[in-house]
Design brief:
Blueprint: H1 21-24, H2 28-35, H3 39-66, H4 71-88, E1 96-97, H5 103-134, H6 138-141, H7 146-169, H8 181-190, H9 197-216, H10 222-237, H11 244-248, H12 265-297, H13 303-319, E2 326-327, H14 329-337, H15 344-360, H16 369-383, H17 386-395, H18 397-412, H19 415-437, E3 439-442, E4 446-450, E5 456-461, E6 471-477, H20 482-498, E7 501-508, H21 514-529, E8 533-537, H22 541-549, E9 558-560, H23 563-572, H24 585-592
Parallel strand pairs: 6-7, 7-8, 8-9
Antiparallel strand pairs: 1-2, 3-6, 4-5
């Protein structure tokens, strides 16, 4: 008697509608204008834009100086790059400009390739960012382990603070300041006798004003007040300290004309690693900033559109002599808290900075570098996510290892290496944890007894003692992937050696990869050579399709809906292990319908 085959009926699967190209890459500015944009919206954006510009003004100059560029280049980056980040990006509230996270990479690029190399690397990074966006890889950029982001951010903060010690103390170095921390510290230590009391006072005063106003008057622009106050004191008392005017000749009262840097194949090859690092860090920083804005507002940004906008912004920044631009978390959060309605606030923030360059640029000559160093000292302190750092150290050994590895590599080796190695360690840790979750266990199912009328009685426990001892049932639970394939495969191999029917239940497997499918295929071929029948139950439509694509077709294996159906067919076949054997590949395909 041949076992009857029961067709496998599947409910129709309704796939979600995929967004069109236009929907994916429509800037949020266009979305805002389509919704209707009135005078009240513009008023809210103007207030928010002015608030952010007040914050961005000293930061843009301080970050540029710390990066080895001129303060004017920092302003150009915020003006041109920041405008396009808001105009073309996929976030309603993103504010673009120079970011503290880039100080390490930008300074290293300037030191290795000069200013032309930096501008070329910035332009190439913009093209890379745009390509990442158009290839719709923005979703994968966000798969960065949390310990890695906390670790490299803290490491960057340490390097930023170390880079400001010279200006905080007003030191006069006899040699160029080294970049690596271990080389820098001995030079700074030997130069301590040249420290300037006036510079130390200005730096401490700026730090005190910023921190004091944050506690007492959090809505006041503490950084701008500190910088303006220190400039007034320096000019009024005639202090002999380094200023923007003495070290950089001030800020030109106008904008540069767009121009291309020197481009050659050799130069492109030389700066390409820096460009890739800029693009990688820029994508991480900008998407993290967009996620923060989403969390504060309940909105959703368009990741790939955001990266395309960032790419255009970096190209424009380079054309006007600026450097790397990205979404900045602190300024974006300030924009949201100031009541911004949409991207117009970010565009107006750039316009307000342009007004400063055109009208008040000569006043910047009096700004002491010690005061800007104080601003960056506060920024570096705020960058460190201290509660998160402590929590990750306590949470598990794996997270602590990833955190400390990324943190120390950022300080002593380089940011790119730290991110790559930290990501690799985090991925290995995740694979290890997932492999522990995936399990295989013997199954004691419930079996329905057949009644004479053809119906089934109430379910009763399956009695293994009364069953055929040649039948073994195992159930896999969890994601069946390469991390767990070896251990599960070894268990199934041993079972296939000693039984004539092996039922493997996939009812609790949401996903399997090619390694897992190959493991089952190898098991099925080995079982077939030994006369062991393999029955796969509980497979979803997607799982069956993957298994079928890997050669797991009837009669090599049989497919049934449940363990119960498999056992019932075995019982009806009068002991012959033929359950599902007559289901041809064509029938199986038809049942998938």
């Amino acid at each position: 008697m041949t076992a009857r085959t029961e067709p496998i009926s599947q409910p129709p699967i309704s796939k979600p509608r995929q967004p069109t190209f236009a929907e994916l890459f429509t800037p949020k500015l266009v979305t805002i204008l389509r919704e209707g944009y009135g005078l009240s919206n513009f008023r809210a954006d103007a207030i928010a834009g002015l608030t952010v510009a007040i914050v961005a003004l000293p930061l843009s100059m301080a970050i540029a100086i710390a990066s080895g560029a001129s303060p004017a280049q920092g302003l150009y980056t915020a003006i041109f790059g920041g405008f396009l980040v808001s105009a073309l990006g996929g976030s309603r509230f993103q504010i673009g400009g120079p970011a503290g996270a880039f100080i390490v990479l930008v300074a290293a690029t300037v030191q290795a390739h000069g200013m032309d190399g930096l501008i070329l690397a910035t332009m190439l990074s913009g093209l890379i960012l745009a390509a990442i966006g158009f290839l719709q890889l923005g979703t994968y950029i966000k798969f960065m382990p949390y310990p890695v982001t906390v670790g490299f951010t803290a490491g960057i903060a340490v390097i930023i603070f170390a880079s400001q010690i010279k200006d905080l103390l007003g030191l006069r170095l006899g040699v160029p300041e080294p970049g690596p921390l271990l080389d820098k510290l001995p030079v700074l230590w030997s130069s301590l006798p040249t420290a300037s009391p006036a510079a130390v006072g200005l730096a401490l005063g700026s730090i005190g004003i910023i921190t004091g106003l944050k506690a007492l008057r959090p809505h006041w622009p503490g950084m701008l007040i500190a910088v303006a106050g220190s400039a007034a004191v320096t000019a009024g008392l005639g202090l002999k300290v380094a200023t923007i005017g003495t070290d950089f000749g001030g800020i030109p009262p106008g904008l540069p004309m767009p121009s291309l840097p020197a481009i050659s194949l050799d130069k492109i090859q030389a700066v390409l690693p820096s460009a890739v690092s800029f693009a990688l860090l820029g994508s991480i920083e900008s998407l993290l900033s967009a996620v923060v804005a989403d969390g504060m507002t309940g909105r959703r940004h368009r990741s790939n559109c955001e990266l395309v906008g960032q790419g255009a912004a970096n190209v424009a920044s380079a054309l006007f002599g600026g450097f790397c631009v990205t979404g900045t978390i602190a300024r974006t959060a300030t924009n949201v808290r100031a009541g911004a309605h949409g991207p117009v606030s970010g565009m107006l923030h750039s316009a307000f900075l342009l007004v400063f360059v055109l009208v008040a640029a000569p006043l910047a000559s009096f700004i002491p570098l010690a005061s800007l160093a104080g601003v960056l000292a506060v920024v570096s302190w705020n960058m460190v996510e201290k509660p998160a750092f402590a929590l990750l150290l306590r949470s598990s050994r794996g997270d602590a290892a990833v955190l400390l590895s990324t943190f120390l590599l950022t300080i002593f080796r380089g940011l790119s290496e730290a991110i790559v190695i930290g990501f690799a360690l985090g991925s290995v840790l995740f694979i290890h944890r997932m492999s522990k979750v995936t399990a295989i266990e013997s199954q004691t199912p419930f079996v329905a007894e057949d009644r004479p009328d053809g119906a089934s009685s109430a379910r009763t426990p399956y009695d293994e003692a009364a069953a055929d001892p040649d039948v073994v049932i195992y159930r896999i639970s969890g994601v069946f992937f390469f991390g767990a394939a070896a251990s599960i495969g070894s268990v199934l191999d041993r079972i296939a050696d000693t039984h004539r029917v092996l039922i493997v239940d996939f009812g609790a497997v949401p996903f399997l990869d090619s390694t897992a499918a190959n493991t089952i295929e190898g098991l099925a071929h080995k079982a077939a050579r030994r006369g062991v029948k393999v029955i796969l139950t509980g497979t979803s439509h997607a799982l069956r399709q993957d298994l079928f694509n890997h050669g797991l077709k009837p009669p090599l294996v049989a497919y049934e809906r449940t363990i119960e159906v498999s056992l019932r067919k075995l019982r009806r076949s009068d002991g012959r292990m033929t359950a599902g054997a007559d289901v041809s590949a064509e029938t199986w395909r038809g049942n998938e319908g």
